[in-house]
Amino acid sequence: MRLTDYKWFQAEPLNSESSLPKLVIRRLGLQDYEPIWGAMRYLAENPKSERNDEIWLLSHKPVFTQGQAGKAEHILNPGNIPVVQIDRGGQVTYHGPGQLVAYLLIDVRRRKIGIRKLVDLIENAMAATLEQFGLAAETRPKAPGVYVNDAKMGALGLRIKNGWSYHGLSLNVNMDLSPFKCINPCGFEDLAVTQLADFVENEEMLLQKVSKVLCNKLLDELGYKEHS
Predict the structure, then answer these.
(1) Residue 227: inside a domain, yes or no?
(2) Catalytic residue among 119, 125, 186, 196
(3) Which of 52, 91, 181, 225 is surrounded by the most beta carbons within 10 Å?
């Protein structure tokens, strides 16, 4: 796929004298899973010191993804939805239209940040996004993601290779949640799953609005200015 065919912009550091690397945000729309996975994996497998850090914002066509240590028993009844075995951490999850996905292709060595800090900033960005829509989100130390009223609304899974992170987060916005009943989400039996649309009324263009807010919250966490 040609990433240059999609909308993108370069974020500016909060401090004009900052030594932060360049950060490019790409909006990729609705995508099949495997080409996107292949593209970000290729970048991590072929690192270049001069390459910009990037965040990709998109949604996926229906797919279950199983993490590298995932257990087959957590896939209960996938039906016609494909199951893709991938190389991120964590167990099985579902992606589909109406869910917002953000992939973080970050040179963590250059930024001098570890995996724990990266997980924290992703969770902080998701929680701050939901707060802007009037929801109080919680995190759980042994179950990464964000939860509202004990139901999972945002998940995350990462891989570090050659000093670069890839994969990222998914946030349920306005989607068909029924495929989550076909799996044990993130490896937890009977885990309740929810979405933002169940808590806001008459909100038009909700996915686009959430995408803008989440993008800016990720920029905040990484030390860049918000994008109008």
Answers:
(1) no
(2) 186
(3) 91
